[in-house]
């Protein structure tokens, strides 16, 4: 898979390193000469250019990329790169970094963004996830379909603890992606039984999040009454 990353700072280089280790082809693009540190990620392609310019993106052959990652420290730049990648070059998957949470509302399909990653929001969500049981925590937002990646740790008093996945009446527009049980990552097959303490990861429409949280967290005595 060919991936272009706009922004060769610490974030861009770290992403590039991970992708290269996984066998992908990576191009790093940055307009600052000081950011071009080929020796730090020697396996990547490097391009000294302004990723907001069509001529630069032509030189980067963006039309051959399967994924574009807008990872600069400037939200305006990331939005422009995302929009150009999607509308001018038809890149199938565009991921954009959100630096200022106040700008998160802009990172939508209208700007060509498929997945928006807000580092401050993600760090906050991970803190919540570490200390919360029974509360739905939003980890990641997907622009297409207004869906989010959400997590909930199943509390002991949940009405569905001990229930098979296939027997639960899940809300519409939600999908159980995986179950994390201790050090194990489980595929949520219909016969898998949910246990108290399971970390459940869902892709869910935002409008269904409250309904999903109610289903997972309801106490047995509440459900019976």
Automatic annotation (TrEMBL):
Which UniProt keywords are present, listed alphabetically?
Answer: Ion transport, Transport
| Record bears the keyword Transferase | no
State one Pfam family annotation: TrkA_C
Q: Report the residue ranges that make up the RCK C-terminal domain in this protein.
A: 137-218
Q: Which Gene3D superfamilies match?
A: NAD(P)-binding Rossmann-like Domain, Regulator of K+ conductance, C-terminal domain
Q: Where is the RCK N-terminal domain?
A: 1-117
The protein, known as: TrkA family potassium uptake protein
């Amino acid at each position: 898979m060919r991936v272009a990353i706009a922004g060769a700072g610490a974030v861009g280089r770290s992403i590039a390193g991970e992708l290269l280790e996984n066998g992908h082809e990576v191009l790093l693009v940055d307009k600052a000469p000081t950011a071009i540190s080929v020796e730090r990620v020697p396996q990547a392609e490097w391009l000294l250019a302004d990723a907001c310019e069509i001529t630069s993106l032509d030189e980067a052959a963006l039309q051959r990329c399967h994924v574009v990652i807008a990872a600069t420290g400037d939200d305006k730049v990331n939005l422009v790169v995302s929009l150009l990648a999607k509308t001018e070059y038809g890149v199938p998957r565009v991921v954009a970094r959100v630096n200022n949470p106040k700008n998160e509302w802009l990172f939508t399909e209208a700007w060509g963004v498929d997945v928006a990653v807000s580092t401050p929001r993600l760090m906050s969500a991970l803190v919540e996830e570490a200390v919360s049981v029974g509360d739905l925590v939003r980890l990641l937002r997907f622009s297409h379909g207004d869906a989010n990646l959400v997590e909930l740790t199943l509390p002991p008093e949940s009405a569905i603890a001990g229930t098979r996945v296939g027997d639960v009446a899940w809300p519409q527009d939600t999908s159980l992606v995986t179950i994390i049980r201790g050090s194990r990552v489980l595929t949520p097959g219909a016969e898998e039984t949910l246990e108290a303490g399971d970390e459940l990861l869902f892709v869910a429409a935002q409008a269904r999040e409250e309904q999903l949280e109610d289903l997972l967290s309801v106490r047995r005595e509440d459900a019976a009454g």
